[in-house]
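I am still getting used to backbone structure tokens and would like to learn alongside you. Label the sequence line and the structure token line clearly, so we can match residues to local backbone shapes. Go ahead whenever you are ready, and we will take it from there:
>
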Amino acid sequence: MISTRNLLFGLLLAAVAPIPAHALNFVVNDATSNADADTPDDALCQTMAGTCSLRAAIEEANEQTGPHTITFAPAITAITLTADLPDIRAQVTIDGTNAGAVGGRVDINGAAVNGVGGFDCFDLLSTGTVMPPINNPDGGQGSTLSNLVIRNCADDGIDASGHGYSFLDNRIGTNPAGTAAAPNDGDGINIDGTIPPPMIPDIQGLLDSPPTNFGEIAAYATALQGALTVIANPNFITGNHISGNLQTAITLNNPMTVNSFVAGNIIGLSADSLSAIPNGTGGGAPDAVVLSNGAYGNFIGPGNVISGNSNDGISISGAVLLPNFIAGNVIGPGGLPGLELGNGDNGIDITATIEDDGTAPDNPTGYTTFIGPANIISDNQSDNGGGALDQYGSDTSGGVLVSGEGVRIFGNAIGLFAFPAGAPIGPADQLLDVGNSGNGIVLTTGGNQVGGSEVFEANFILHNERHGILVRGSNTVGNIIRGNFIGVAPPTGLDVFSLGNNGNGVVVYSASGTIIGGPGDLDDNVVAGNGINGVALRNGSTNNGWANLIQRNQIYANGVTTPGVGIGIDLEHDIDVADVQPDPAGDDPNTNYANYGQNQPTVCTGAGVPLPACVAPGFNSGSGATTTAWSIATRPNTSLRIEYFALRPDGMTFLFDELVTTDAAGLPVSGTVSTCVAGLCTASGMPATAEDTRGQSIVMTATDLFPTDVPPVDGLVLDDPANNTSEFSAPAGIPQEVAFSSASFTANEADGTTTVVLQRLGTPTAAVSVDVVVAAAPGTASGAGVDYALVSANPVSWADGDGADKTFTLSINNDTLD
């Protein structure tokens, strides 16, 4: 699998400004740490022994106007440092390519001085000197370190201040073969930016048109890089193997670190991606890739494999001026399925906030992080301390944990080894269970979006050990969950129900103003095959846990773990089971429950059931309309949105909706589709796309729109329960029909027999049998038993799910009668 994720990052490098010809070229032919011993500033790298060590080459480079190159003689395959290397204060390219070295890289080993005093193996400073004849005012900025093994350093492997660095194809924190840790005591790579933004470029066009699949990510990153170059030259961290470091693998630190691109790296695994060599085993529980203290405008991806680390795979914190991006990465799985190499905590942890303190500049975009598309975020090990599935209040375990704001999560596979076949987002592979040990996604703050209204924005959130998505917190307001597959992957069907999340598909715990679904054609979430409920709302009260809109979603076939436990939508009146219907009017509104315990409609299932004057739902094959009789007892004098769905074992179809008003008793009096008399309504409507509902069941929801259809996103008004959606009604089945395939059949008496075809109309749910009765009928034949007789067995039967045509046979009497 890893090979399908790696991407050539030449597109990223292509936009770098041309580097001028190097002033000096040094060839290291001495493996010692001896200093430059000849005349300073003579452009000669020469120790007392008349050779050129790496230390001497850096010293001499610092004394000359750059840029310079440092390479290694074929005999120099490894250098064991016995003293600190000098700070790099001139632009230099150090290229460790050596075919004779293990892995083709020169080995820089700090073990001999590790512990003597904390030092970084490579320190690159943003300041030099402007005194003639030396002219390096920007210090080591713009330098490149490539094809080196950097290990056993007393602090960071590479520590750089400033901008414009390229760290390419290095092995940092392991032995030269990449099979075991040789840890640096600090970070693998640390970059601290130094340029406060002179201006914030307008990247809104890029934000409005993000990449839609894996193949578009590199070009998008290049476009972003070009836009941000007005702030600082880009940093490139590409093609490296960074594992085994005691602190982070990569830290991009401070609010001046911008325009960094991290792509095609292996972080936390062996070089073959088949075993863990974790970063972050030192003190303080450091994460693997860290964007801290407001680092902004950085791009993580594509092609990184970030797995096997001790703590979070990626974490982003601080108030940011522009969003950071995470796209096209593998976060948790290893190189083959079944290896259990997930990160020790969450896959991604976002606490970033929008910089808007009123002191210019502020973040003009409203976003802090774009997560997607084409990340695979699975097998991460945070599990809420092993707590029960109904322990929500402090749960922070997830493939993705968001405790910040302005986060957009789209186009990811969360809990899978690869994207489902046919998904337009990323390369498909085996659809295997490598679910996160906790939830798929956890949102503990508001103002975030999971999914979207376009095909490419769908997240596939399957087979996580807790819940698909958990939204929690009494101050968590205004999250959007839209257009996702939660518990089931397309094509929907029973064959993939084994990939559901172990708990609920979506849990909203104490949170308010959550939007699940929406009115658009692609807004609906498909929530199916999960262990308990499709959507569970919990811990509602007067102050929180309401105004949670659930609109036009496909929610079906949940409760797969324990029969009878789990329903489509559960508002906690009766936990994990359907409420007794019909609900009494006095129950609405009830501030003891989530969504104020909004009552659901009652659908008539037959003559007088469950209400007097009820009739069963039906389908008009001529017009294509579905007719439903229903009622509701709810808030007096309010406005409701009533939604109608056709339910079958392997799917659900939104049919239509309408606006309904209630009277002083809380009973419906009028609707935009329904006609209501004495609280009993009849609706006859057709979906935008024709749907034969015979053999399916009708279910309905009610959403209280009082006093407005706009959810409160900037704070709650206690008497405003707008957008409280109910549970589903109990289902009411529409009978199936069996009919002749033709209005008439013609037979030749000489044939002796004829075959008559029967068709099963509608959705083939449950087993069906019909008896064939041969009786006299108008026509040219003389009558049953004279000209024809039934000779095939009765009854004609269909199994559950069998929609094929069936036949029966009549014998024909070849006589002189008609």
In short: Helices lie at 2-5, 10-14, 54-62, 204-208, 217-228.
